[in-house]
Automatic annotation (TrEMBL):
MF GO annotations: nicotinate-nucleotide diphosphorylase (carboxylating) activity
UniProt domain Quinolinate phosphoribosyl transferase N-terminal: residue ranges: 42-127
Name this protein carries in UniProt: nicotinate-nucleotide diphosphorylase (carboxylating)
Protein species of origin: Arthrobacter sedimenti
Pfam families: QRPTase_C, QRPTase_N
């Protein structure tokens, strides 16, 4: 299905979600990135740029979008040189137009040039995720559906990518395998040995072993699995790869006995119809695993010795 043109991002709702990042894991990510990108320093700048040269550069938006990673951009610049001055002109979670100045950087030219690529890589990817999320959120506006991410994130960057989803107005699913129970099709196949009659009994036995605060979700891919799963008293039932009519029927069948999540076949062309079925959650792997970096650039305004 052809996806619609990009919507007006400024119209996307912005729920009150936490738009802060813990400093320790961000620093760890940045340290790994610079160890990879400049293990022995930036030999090009050391060769060509005098040590006392200074530069001022502007982070420019070449396309419209929603910003995420402004503070990460700043931290990358200042990890290379704590004396680098970074003025953030647009806050994380804010929509911007093409041509907007998002941040201004001033410092030694060598430091700015060494930090440039790592800082840009992260803010470009995070802003792409935020922008895509805002498009999905706007298309679900007026329904009860919450747009969430999945665990389909870049290894080592999950905390940044999930922050970017929040910047776009979306919400986060479970952070890791350690946070909640989510029994998917392969779990159920192994558990039941192919005998669906065992499903309720086995889920009840599993639930009895959980603490009372642990969320229990089960994925189903057929309508006839819904009642046996609901009989186990699960918290959320995921309807995977259901058609829109099937989702409507599934929501009616659940009838408030559990939270309903839709997953699979979700794109910008289908999300509005999926949201209109009455589901509570729509999980979208594409928010993080198929985005292309947003076109942001760092342009030097002034270099002086």
């Amino acid at each position: 299905m052809t996806e619609p043109a990009v919507i007006a991002l400024a119209a996307a709702p912005r729920p009150a979600l936490d738009l802060t990042l813990p400093p320790a894991p961000v620093r760890e990510i940045l340290e790994r990135a610079f160890d990879e990108d400049a293990p022995g320093g930036d030999i090009t700048s050391q060769l060509l740029i005098p040590a006392d040269a200074r530069a001022t550069a502007v982070l420019n938006a070449r396309v419209p979008g929603v910003l995420s990673g402004a503070t990460v951009f700043r931290d990358a610049m200042q990890l290379v040189d704590p004396n680098t001055q970074v003025e953030l002109l647009v806050a994380d979670g804010k929509a911007f137009d093409a041509g907007t100045h998002l941040a201004r950087v001033s410092g030694t030219a060598r430091s700015v040039l060494m930090a440039e690529r790592v800082a840009l890589n992260l803010v470009q990817r995070m802003s792409a995720i935020a922008t895509k999320t805002a498009e999905y959120v706007a298309l679900a506006e007026g329904t009860r559906a919450r747009i969430t991410d999945t665990r389909k994130t870049t290894p080592g960057l999950r905390i940044l990518e999930r922050f970017a989803v929040r910047c776009g107005g979306g919400a986060n699913h479970r952070y890791s395998l350690s946070d909640a129970v989510l029994a998917k099709d392969n779990h159920l196949a192994v558990m039941t040995g192919g005998d669906p009659a065992k499903l309720t009994e086995l889920l009840l036995a599993a639930k009895a072993q959980l603490g009372h605060t642990t969320h229990f979700e089960v994925e189903v891919d057929r309508m006839d699995q819904i009642e046996p799963v609901l009989a186990a008293g699960v918290d959320t039932i995921m309807l995977d790869n259901f058609t829109v009519p099937e989702l409507k029927d599934g929501v009616a069948l659940v009838a408030g006995r559990a939270r309903v999540e839709a997953s699979g076949n979700v794109n910008l062309g289908t999300v509005g119809a999926i949201a209109a079925t009455g589901v509570d959650v729509i999980s979208v792997g594409a928010l993080t695993h198929t985005v292309a970096a947003l076109d942001l650039g760092l342009d030097v305004e002034l270099t002086a010795r």
